[in-house]
Design a protein that fits this description.
The protein is α+β, with helices and mostly antiparallel strands and 111 residues long. The chain has six helices and five strands; from the N terminus they run ββααβααββαα. It has one domain: Arc Repressor Mutant, subunit A. It is globular, with a radius of gyration of 16 Å.
């Protein structure tokens, strides 16, 4: 399944899939928060990913879980639920660092 642009250029399906995941609103922010803060409770994620409704945050966490990027951790005899990055999720650190570097260079003035 190759993605072909209107100019006839083909995009790598893996590349397209990656940007499909990262391009979804809030996914990059969720990944960034988990990279920086580590294992987090839902309420802490909701506070860190400002302006994202609880409903959408739940949807995005489920999507990231299905992609193997986020792990939902539950504990016996406890209502506690935590979210953490999987190995696949933590492997995104260098990519996220590169995005930070690009943003710092591109948007030299504070936004």
């Amino acid at each position: 399944m190759e993605n072909v642009t209107k100019d006839g250029l083909s995009l790598c399906p893996k590349f397209a899939k990656t940007f499909e995941i990262l391009g979804r609103k809030w996914n990059g922010m969720i990944i960034e928060v988990l990279l920086n803060n580590g294992v987090s409770r839902f309420k802490d994620l909701a506070a860190a990913v400002q302006n994202c409704s609880d409903r959408v945050l739940v949807e995005r966490l489920k999507e990231l879980e299905e992609e193997g990027i986020v792990e939902r951790r539950t504990y016996e005899d406890s209502a506690l639920i935590n979210y953490a990055l999987t190995e696949r999720g933590t492997a995104m650190r260098s990519m996220m660092d590169a995005i930070h570097e690009w943003a710092d260079q591109t948007y030299a003035q504070a936004i």
